[in-house]
Amino acid sequence: MTGADVLLLALGALAVGSGVLVVATRHLVRAGLYLVLCLGALAGMYLVLTAELVAWVQVLIYVGAVVVLLLFAVMLTRAPIGASDDLDRPGWAAALVGGGTGLGLAALLVDAYRWTAVELPEAGTAERLGDQIFRSWVLPFEVLSVLLLSALIGAIVISRPDIGRPKAGEPGTARSRTGGPGPGGSGTAVGGGRPGDDGGRSR
Amino acid sequence: MRPVIPYVTAALLFGLGVYGVLRRRNAVLVLMAVELMLNAVNLILVTADTTVRAQLPHGGQVFALFVIVLAAAEIGVGLAIVLQLYRLRATVAVDEVPLTERPEGER
Asked: What is the CA radius of gyration of chain A?
């Protein structure tokens, strides 16, 4: 057991422990905060594994951006403050499948690697990593930029229901509005909005 | 460095992610569990980068960076869908989403 092993064990225990709390806690906001702990512990593991660029990208994008987005979504969906009892589905099937997957993969990897030791490469890999990205992997890198752009546009189109809806007074809107109210209070907006949407595209 | 430690950590995190996706009702919590699974894959990739001698150096770390970018795109679109679902149905419970019912008047 070297120092790296002890660090990896401690950070791994922290990551798994906070991961358990993410999927088990009854507080929505606390799940996001435990996720920060889990992702931070993983960034520490990347640092020990001499992948410092991945570690800092993890801190920037995951802890900085993704968790903040998730917490925004928690607050925008009017999550209750305090414990809520309706977060989980009942049943042991999830525990069976999840535990089976995790323990099965763990048994497979333990069987493959046993207790062998590997020399860690020297630290300071960021320069060589950038070299690889912009030489061998430059085409996937560019494709990823296109993917990010399309995800951006897709998120905007999804969250703006007025895009593609016909103007008021056009025949498609009038027909669908007389089609009767949809199911439930908020469902009325669906029944009114979607057919108008459809009529606008079919023209 | 014993590679079995980060590998087992990643396997357990992936199992936790699967459990969370299947167990949780709240769509935001389902997305958090998906993040756990993606991070488990990233840990596998980074560990394999240090333990396996590949022809191209640092392929694992490059792939981990790519997966992080994909996860960022996924979370953006996923949260847009969740917020739109909340605006239409006033709920984010994934088992209350009707899969077969069509909105009234749709052709």
From this structure: 24
Integer CA distances (angstroms), A132 to A129, A143, B32, in order: 5, 16, 31
Q: At A98, list the tokens.
A: 């999840």
Name every chain B residue with its beta carbon within 8 A of the beta carbon of A73: 28, 31, 79, 82-83
Q: Which two tokens stand for residue A57?
A: 């990208």
Q: Which DSSP string corresponds to A78-118?
A: TPPSS--S-SB---SHHHHHHHHHHHHHHHHHHHHHTT---
Measured CA to CA, the distance from residue B39 to residue A16 in angstroms comes to: 12
d(CA B73, CA A154): 10
Task: Say if the ipTM goes beyond 0.90.
Answer: no
pLDDT digits (tens, 9 = 90+) for B2-30: 899 999 999 999 999 999 999 998 899 99
| Cα atoms found within 13 Å of the Cα of residue A58, Cβ hemisphere only | 29
Q: Which amino acid is at A194?
A: R
Q: Would you call A194 and B103 a contact, using CB atoms and an 8 Å cutoff? A: yes
For B82, nearest residue in chain A (alpha carbons): A73
- How much is the pTM? 0.82
Angstrom distance (rounded) from CA A131 to CA A137 = 9
* CA dist., res. B50 & res. A128, Å (int): 14
CB–CB contact B1 A49 (8 Å): yes
The phi, psi pair for B26, rounded to 5°, reads -75, 130
Using a CB–CB cutoff of 8 Å, tell me whether B54 touches chain A: no
Q: How many residue contacts between A and B have a Cβ separation below 8 Å? A: 300
Reported as a single tens digit per residue, the pLDDT across A187-198 is 434 444 444 444
**Shortest Cα–Cα distance, A195 to chain B (Å):** 5
Cα separation, A103 vs B19, whole angstroms:
12
pLDDT tens, residue by residue, B43-98: 999 999 988 877 788 889 999 999 999 999 999 999 999 998 888 888 888 888 87
